[in-house]
């Protein structure tokens, strides 16, 4: 019996929303706009954070750099001789990397060149999957493995060569022996991997010089102890643990989402105020309707429940529509938002914007979209239902 009563109230609430369509639209539109922006922002933020955190799983336990006067300096092999003998360190791998410009379709881009020791690093360690051809192997010279996106941009296939110019304008030819793919777009979409010798020649590094060193430990729990030991060897080292880089990644994307969160809160507050104004202004026809319901035995609780159902329906429909519109906006490439979240998109190569709808984010969006509207309807509903029956009928 109680269930049938609630179902009847829900059906009457739905018919009321159709009957007072102008009021329903006035409630629906601002809330839908607020939730569209909120969902697009949230899905982009979650997608970028997911991609960035996936990329941190491919990081070494410790990344070792050198600082001189607060700026990064090149490392030399002799400076790492003591570090490599510290207890707890399983492997210490030198790495050389830098940027090189390319003009594609009349538009300048910046790509990343990474030089590795083929015998010490493999695709699995780097989080890469060779889609075509092969990876680098010992004995390679100017061979290179490039990302599928870069290969498409250049129109290059396995077995062909690409010519790059260094900062001084000198030309270097790299023979493409493989194409790699990765599920983490922001990690490797702009990457060219070659041997450490070729990278040193191209970037102007001397023999034994490197950009940084990758430290792999015997046990991951030794990160802090080994980091302190490395600093005791030479305080000029900059020691970055995997946990430190992971935390920095989370903060970077969370802070960028803060501006959009502020805009969304302003829109949500506006929607709540519009809802309060609409729900508080009870028309003469609605007052008579409340009087008739009270005269036939409806209680104050029944009328409040009816109005709560009306607000609930509008809130759920507006929030769901906002989520679908936000997802559709991302499918169109997320203009404006993409440029803000990925500040390097105008310089580095374009890539599909990663988006992800985390279950907890969807639940939070529904809560923040529906609850203010439902809450805003409580007091006006109580005021309307508390008026004497004869006053309602006389208007």
Task: Summarize, please.
The chain has 395 residues and is an alpha+beta fold. It is 53% helix and 21% strand. Mean pLDDT is 78; it is low at 344-349.
Helix content range: 40-55%
Structural class: alpha+beta
Indicate the radius of gyration in whole angstroms. 31 Å
Helix and strand pattern? HHEEEEEHEEHEEHEHEEHEHHHHHHH
Description:
It is a single chain. This protein has 14 helices and 13 strands. The protein is an alpha+beta fold. The chain has two domains: 200 residues, no CATH class; 129 residues, no CATH class. The strands form two sheets. Strands 1, 2, 4, 5, 6, 7, 8, 9, 10, 12 and 13 form an eleven-stranded mixed sheet that branches. Strand 8 and strand 9 form a beta hairpin. Helix 2 crosses helix 10 and helix 10 packs antiparallel against helix 13. The longest helix has 39 residues. About 2% of the residues have low confidence.
Keywords:
2 domains; alpha+beta; 14 helices; two-stranded antiparallel ribbon; single chain; 53% helix; 395 residues
List the helices and strands and how they pair.
Blueprint: H1 2-19, H2 21-56, E1 62-68, E2 71-73, E3 75-76, E4 89-104, E5 107-116, H3 123-126, E6 129-133, E7 143-147, H4 148-154, E8 161-165, E9 171-181, H5 185-188, E10 191-195, H6 196-203, E11 209-210, E12 212-217, H7 223-233, E13 237-241, H8 242-280, H9 284-295, H10 300-331, H11 337-341, H12 359-376, H13 378-386, H14 389-394
Parallel strand pairs: 5-10, 7-9
Antiparallel strand pairs: 1-2, 1-12, 1-13, 3-11, 4-5, 4-12, 6-9, 7-10, 8-9
């Amino acid at each position: 019996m109680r269930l049938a009563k609630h179902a009847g109230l829900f059906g009457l609430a739905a018919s009321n929303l159709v009957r007072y369509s102008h009021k329903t639209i006035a409630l629906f539109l601002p809330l839908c706009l607020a939730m569209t922006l909120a969902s697009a922002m949230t899905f982009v933020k979650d997608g970028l954070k997911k991609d960035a955190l996936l990329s941190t799983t491919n990081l070494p336990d410790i990344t070792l750099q050198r600082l001189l006067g607060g700026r990064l300096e090149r490392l030399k092999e002799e400076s790492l001789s003591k570090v490599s003998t510290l207890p707890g360190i399983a492997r210490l791998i030198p790495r050389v990397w830098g940027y090189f410009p390319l003009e594609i379709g009349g538009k300048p881009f910046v790509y990343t060149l990474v030089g590795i020791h083929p015998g010490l690093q493999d695709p699995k360690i780097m989080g890469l999957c060779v889609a075509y051809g092969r990876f680098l192997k010992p004995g390679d010279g100017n061979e290179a493995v490039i990302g599928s996106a870069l290969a498409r941009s250049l129109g290059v296939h396995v077995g062909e060569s690409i010519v790059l110019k260094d900062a001084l304008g000198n030309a270097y030819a790299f023979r493409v022996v493989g194409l790699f793919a990765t599920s983490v777009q922001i990690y490797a979409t702009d990457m060219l991997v070659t041997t450490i010798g070729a990278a040193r020649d191209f970037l102007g590094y001397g023999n034994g010089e490197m950009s940084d060193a990758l430290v792999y430990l015997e046990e991951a729990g030794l990160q802090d102890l080994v980091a302190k030991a490395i600093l005791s060897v030479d305080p000029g080292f900059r020691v970055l643990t995997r946990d430190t880089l992971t935390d920095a990644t989370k903060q970077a994307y969370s802070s960028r989402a803060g501006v959009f969160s502020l805009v969304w809160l302003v829109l949500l507050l506006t929607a709540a105020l519009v809802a309060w104004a609409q729900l508080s202004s009870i028309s003469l026809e609605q007052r008579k309707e409340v009087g008739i319901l009270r005269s036939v035995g409806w209680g104050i609780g029944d009328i409040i429940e009816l109005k709560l159902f009306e607000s609930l329906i509008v809130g759920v429909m507006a929030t769901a529509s906002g989520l679908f519109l936000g997802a559709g906006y991302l499918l169109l490439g997320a203009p404006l938002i993409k440029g803000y979240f990925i500040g390097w998109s105008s310089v580095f190569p374009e890539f599909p914007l990663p988006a992800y709808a985390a279950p907890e984010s969807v639940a939070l969006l529904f809560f923040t979209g529906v609850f203010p509207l439902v809450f805003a309807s409580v007091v006006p509903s109580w005021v309307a239902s508390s008026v004497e029956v004869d006053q309602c009928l006389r208007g």
